[in-house]
Amino acid sequence: MSYTLLSAVAVVVALLLDLVVVRTRVVLTRQWWISYAICFVGQLAVNGWLTGRRIVTYDDAAILGGNHEQFVGDWRFCYAPVEDVGFGFALVLLTIVSWRWWCARDGGHSASG
């Protein structure tokens, strides 16, 4: 399975969990999109640094675009392939959905209190 396909599956699974399975509906809130925008800037900075310096490289056959240093374009943002954006979105969304779901199950109490 290609990195592109895995990224798309991760996004779909995260959205389905949020909207259908646990029904936290995080992505329907303005708070989510503001929070995700902040995370996205950080993700681009870190991914850009790692891929722009070729610390992390990708197989051309596994991603959209080519495996060359390009800041924007050819399916890249800040040097990182667009697939990384999908994985980042899914990771942050799953974290927030899990947090909200567990807090709701716990009656809103923290583990330490």
UniProtKB/TrEMBL annotation:
InterPro entries: Lycopene_cyclase_dom. The keyword Isomerase applies. It is found in: Membrane. Pfam families: Lycopene_cyc. The chain crosses the membrane at residues 32-50. It is a multi-pass membrane protein. GO terms for biological process: carotenoid biosynthetic process. GO terms for cellular component: membrane. Keywords: Carotenoid biosynthesis, Isomerase, Membrane, Transmembrane, Transmembrane helix. Pathway: Carotenoid biosynthesis. It comes from the Bacteria. The keyword Isomerase applies. Residues 3-100 form the Lycopene cyclase domain. One of its GO terms (molecular function) is intramolecular lyase activity. NCBIfam families: CarR_dom_SF (TIGR03462). This is Lycopene cyclase domain-containing protein. It comes from Flexivirga oryzae.
